[in-house]
Write a structure and sequence with these properties.
It is a single chain. The radius of gyration is 18 Å and the shape is globular. It is an alpha/beta fold. Helix 8 packs parallel to helix 9. Helix content is 30%, strand content 15%. The longest helix is centred in the middle third of the chain and has 15 residues. It has one domain: Aldolase class I (TIM Barrel, Alpha-Beta Barrel), CATH 3.20.20.70. The structure holds iron/sulfur cluster (SF4). Iron/sulfur cluster binds next to loops.
Length: 303
């Protein structure tokens, strides 16, 4: 990558090729904090053997409530060349991963695309899953055509006031709408294999935050009216207070079971049938993985 970075809607123009870091905190080289088989995704992604999950460091959004805040608000982990990243993908496949699950990869899109090409040429056959915050540019996502077949974006907020408060991104909803439209263009239909594992399509995650029930309803209404059954909706209850929330006291509690049930009921009443729900007990800090560089090359330099 050369020239000012314009990969995400921040359009901050950092000269990452010259050693600068942007709003996302990332420099030129991809940095990851963990690569392991992950069991806590949707059943069609985790399956029986686990999803081959690579957690990237840094983030274009940096949400105030991020449960991966230890690596999203600062870049921590192992720096990896595209070749090393391809080795990690192949190693996960070797361990039995159903797919390669790329978590928060947007700010490393060119290197991830190169790594996928390299890994495919060397025998990677499982699907690649783009697991992102939804704050992305269609032009950047276009680079994934033919490389990524499953998209797993968040759609976090509809209200510009809420997205400004929690992410300093009042344009979040408009960006997420455009990003999901591009993802649906690349992978228009959900496809599952004989074991029920998703091999292509778009699954949009809607995480219910405390006090944001009516905003989450608007997100689900939009997705259902725009995409009907061609996009799956994953309604998530797992929000757990994490990190310094002094400026956001409303986020210092978990979502109540009744709030979550009302959101699920709303989706059912709308006619949503292609979706996933969670047990309200699927929250807690115990579900946050350790970002200890597990599964990454020992020789990789510490970022
Ligand atoms: S990916 Fe990072 S450096 Fe590039 S525009 Fe976005 S925030 Fe800026």
């Amino acid at each position: 990558m050369s020239g000012p970075c314009l990969l995400c809607p921040r359009l901050c123009g950092a000269r990452r090729d010259l050693g600068e870091t942007g709003f996302c905190g990332a420099g030129e080289t991809p940095v990851a904090a963990r690569a392991s088989l992950h069991e806590w995704e949707e059943p069609c992604i985790s399956g029986s053997r686990g999803s081959g999950t690579v957690f990237f460091s840094g983030c274009c959004l940096r949400c105030a409530f991020c449960q991966n805040g230890g690596i999203s608000r600062r870049v921590k982990g192992a720096a990896l060349s595209p070749r090393q990243l391809a080795d990690v993908f192949l190693s996960l496949q070797e361990k039995g991963a159903h797919n390669i699950n790329l978590v928060t990869p947007t700010h490393f899109t060119p290197a991830v695309a190169a790594a996928l090409d390299d890994a495919r040429a060397r025998g990677l056959t499982v699907p690649a899953v783009w697991n992102s915050g939804g704050y992305e540019l269609p032009g950047t996502l276009e680079r994934l055509r033919g490389r990524v077949s499953v998209f797993l974006p968040d759609f976090k907020f509809m209200s510009p006031e809420i997205s400004q408060r929690y992410c300093s991104a009042p344009d979040y909803a408009e960006r997420a709408k455009a990003a999901i439209a591009k993802m649906a263009d690349i992978s228009p239909r959900p496809v599952f294999d004989a074991d029920g594992m998703v091999t292509s399509g778009v699954i949009v995650r809607v995480l219910l935050l405390p006090g944001c029930l009516s905003d989450a309803k608007k997100v689900i209404e939009y997705l259902h009216s725009e995409y009907g059954e061609s996009v799956y909706i994953s309604i998530m209850s797992q929000y757990t207070p994490f990190g310094d929330l002094e400026r956001f006291p409303e986020l210092k509690r978990r979502v109540r079971a009744r709030e979550y049930e009302r959101l699920v009921d709303y989706a059912v009443d709308l006619g949503v049938v292609n979706g996933f729900t969670q047990d309200v007990s699927s929250s807690g800090l115990g579900f946050i993985p350790s970002f200890d560089c597990e599964g990454l090359p020992q020789a990789a330099p510490e970022a």
